[in-house]
Design brief:
Helices cover 44% and strands 9% of the residues. The protein is of the alpha+beta class.
């Protein structure tokens, strides 16, 4: 007996009806608010009561269906309903067991909560009909390659997640003293721990304690947590945040402290403060709310497109740092800090994302669809070195844009299933050979192929490891905290996934920019793309009907914020960069205390007398800018209060007009001192940055965005 046959009650969707024709009144059908004026949108579903004697999914008698659906059976697998389950009050209005609710499309664009999530469920139905999202087992792909197995994620065993987390944070020495000590790593870990904030240290301590408890139970020795951290009650903010915390507390004392639950839920603040640790801000918010005895709503309000707050980044004269601006060595330190910070943020809010462990799956070793991102990029880079995003995805996006983004229902209206399948096979065989007839590819078919590419990845684009964390973001109490978590999660994604996600959200924004013509608002795009980004092979077998319903609005809200706030989310927070600078400074000071290094530095000072001259120039208000890539020895630049990195580039180009590089491909780099390497934002104030890193060198060179 099938799973659906085992269900004794509930409701099922029996068909999708176009509003181009008036619906018959027979059967239990969702009525339009005004039967004389049917909704001008796509249509709605028929709903039928499911009981013990009627297990099959029956079509409503006389129901008219769109011509595109008459040729093939209607897939009615979604959503699943289970006895005793009921949706959240704020979830989309899905049918409840034992009732006869109307299921209809809502014209309101006020919010995701008010929207009847029919576009979402219609997209899920399309995915189900195309064979995605239901875990069809192993077999041959459309191009003949081996496809992935259903099971893509594994729940870690007891203690395994803590060990994996500490290992990812580079802190294996805190739980396994049997490892051969690495002096460099040991020094680095000591410095690393000394730069953590109180919330970050508490997150590490919590996992060490949990692992120690488990090991004691198994009679295994582990370093005592008291040897690593001070007692929690004596924790004080580190130098990284101490001044900022005091400043924030001072500002809060001057402000009116009259709060209520509405203020907390709607979050009227629009300033984006990345100088103070996100988890520290969440802790201050929590403590402040507890003092005022304010209880925030369990789920933040979903605002309409035009009412999402416009977060204003607090100006930092030392320049904003984007993903890709730092050296790989500094990015490793950033990632360690971001992992701990993200965990501390969720811990502070009492949320456990329950990360899963990715397992190996059988995947195609070549082709376009159903191929791991890393494999796909590897084969693309052999053809076009430097490729960062799969060529097939880039080409699909460019084709859609060439044909025009004004097509109504773009991304929402699916292409013909049989034609999309045929085109997919043609792409697999002719894309790299350059013989595919792009001029014959229709807009909606191309959009369906784009969604199929995302959906068919052997592992989710947001990764198995962090998928649950992305979903859990919607549980955070304020919009600002949700964005803080998304910022950290974007930084944690593998570079390939992050770059691909960036290309997608940029494309989605360009679609939304034409909403007057294509009728695709931010909400519309988010609702349609959410199931494609969050569902994967075997997904349906891993969640209950209730979870599926509750995830609908949550995942759409996450996609909505990824699109709307992408400029903020793809930046490195200032407090993280400050911690990296502090680690580099303290590591360098340790090295300088060694006799051998002092002798080496003395020799360097003798061999390079110009370095002393450079420092002396900086002390009297000058920096020396080098451009070895363009055979320019150096250029002295006077530091003024208003001098920005853009001014330095302008001056360089004015002095050497023979530079064969466009202005947008040049960057002024901060190199050495307390950072390895950093490409400067053109709005960086050079005098302020020089004061922060006086030992740095300044170099102009090309950059690949």
């Amino acid at each position: 007996m099938s799973r659906q046959q085992q269900e004794s009650q509930g409701v099922v969707l029996t068909g999708y009806h176009s509003n181009t024709e008036l619906l018959p009144k027979s059967g239990i059908i969702a009525a339009d608010p005004d039967p004389m004026h049917p909704s001008r949108r796509m249509g709605h579903y028929s709903v039928q009561q499911n009981n013990a004697s009627e297990h099959g999914l029956k079509a409503s008698s006389g129901a008219a269906q769109p011509p595109s659906q008459q040729a093939s059976p209607v897939c009615t697998r979604y959503p699943k309903t289970h006895p005793g389950s009921s949706p959240r009050s704020d979830a989309s209005p899905r049918p409840r067991p034992g009732s006869h609710p109307a299921y209809q499309r809502c014209n309101s664009q006020d919010s995701l909560g008010e929207l009847a999530m029919d576009d979402y469920w219609k997209e899920v139905e399309n995915i189900s009909c195309s064979g995605g999202g239901d875990g069809g087992g192993t077999g041959k792909g459309e191009s003949g390659g081996e496809v992935q197995e259903d099971d893509q994620q594994k729940v870690p065993e007891e203690g395994e997640s803590e060990e994996a987390w500490l290992a990812e944070a580079g802190l294996t020495g805190l739980f396994d003293d049997s490892l051969t000590p690495d002096p460099d790593q040991e020094e680095d870990s000591a410095v690393f721990l000394s730069t953590l904030t109180r919330a970050q240290a508490a997150a590490v301590e919590r996992r060490v304690v949990s692992l120690q408890t488990l090991k004691r139970r198994n009679r295994q020795h582990a370093p005592d947590v008291r040897d690593i951290f001070r007692a929690p009650e004596t924790h004080a903010p580190t130098k990284v945040d101490e001044a900022t915390i005091l400043e924030e507390k001072s500002e809060n004392q001057e402000k009116d402290v009259s709060f209520n639950a509405t203020h907390i839920s709607e979050e009227t603040e629009t300033e984006w403060n990345d100088k103070l640790s996100f988890s520290e801000q969440a802790l201050d918010y929590k403590e402040h709310s507890q003092r005022l005895k304010v209880v925030s709503s369990p789920k933040p309000l979903h605002s309409p497109d035009d009412k999402l707050p416009n977060f204003k980044l607090i100006q930092d004269k030392t320049g904003q740092t984007r993903i890709g601006d730092l050296s790989s060595l500094d990015m490793k330190k950033v990632r360690r800090l971001v992992l701990i910070e993200m965990t501390a943020l969720f811990d502070t809010c009492g949320i456990d994302p329950k990360s899963h462990k990715a397992v190996k799956v059988k995947a195609k070793e070549s082709g376009l669809f159903g191929v791991p991102l890393a494999t796909l990029l590897d084969q693309d880079q052999r053809r076009l070195p430097g490729t960062r995003v799969p060529l097939i995805l880039q080409r699909l996006i460019s084709h859609i844009e060439e044909e025009g983004l004004n097509t109504e229902g773009l991304l929402r209206i699916p292409g013909a299933a049989t034609r999309v399948k045929s085109v997919c096979q043609d792409l697999e065989s002719g894309f790299y050979e350059g013989v595919f007839p792009w001029q014959q590819l229709k807009q909606h078919d191309a959009a369906s192929l784009l969604k199929k590419f995302i959906r068919d990845l052997p592992h989710p684009l947001l990764t198995v490891k962090y998928l649950n964390a992305f979903i859990a973001v919607d549980k955070l109490p304020t919009r600002k905290q949700q964005l803080h978590a998304l910022n950290l999660l974007v930084l944690l994604l593998p570079e390939t996934n992050r770059d691909t996600l960036k290309v997608l959200v940029e494309f989605f924004q360009r679609v939304i920019d034409r909403q007057a013509q294509n009728k695709m608002t931010l909400n519309n795009v988010s609702v349609v793309m959410a199931p494609n980004m969050f569902m994967f092979k075997g997904y349906r077998s891993k969640v209950t009907g209730q979870q599926e319903i509750s995830m609908a609005t949550s995942t759409a809200n996450i996609v909505r914020q990824l699109i709307r706030y992408q400029r903020l989310l793809w930046t490195i927070p200032k407090f993280i960069l400050t911690q990296v600078r502090q680690q580099n400074t303290e590591n360098q000071q340790k090295l300088n205390r060694e006799g051998a290094v002092r002798k080496l530095l003395k020799k360097i000072a003798i061999d390079r007398p110009t370095e002393k001259a450079v420092n002396e120039e900086g002390s009297v208000g000058f920096i020396r800018v080098q451009a070895p890539q363009f055979n320019k020895v150096s250029m002295a630049v006077q530091l003024t209060e208003e001098l920005q990195a853009a001014d330095v580039l302008t001056r360089f180009l004015s002095q050497d007009r023979s530079v064969p590089v466009k202005r947008e491909n040049l960057c002024l780099y901060e190199m050495g001192g307390n950072l390895k390497e950093r490409c400067l934002n053109e709005a960086t104030y050079m005098k302020d940055l020089f004061q922060l890193n006086p030992a740095a060198e300044w170099v102009i060179k090309t950059v690949q965005r």
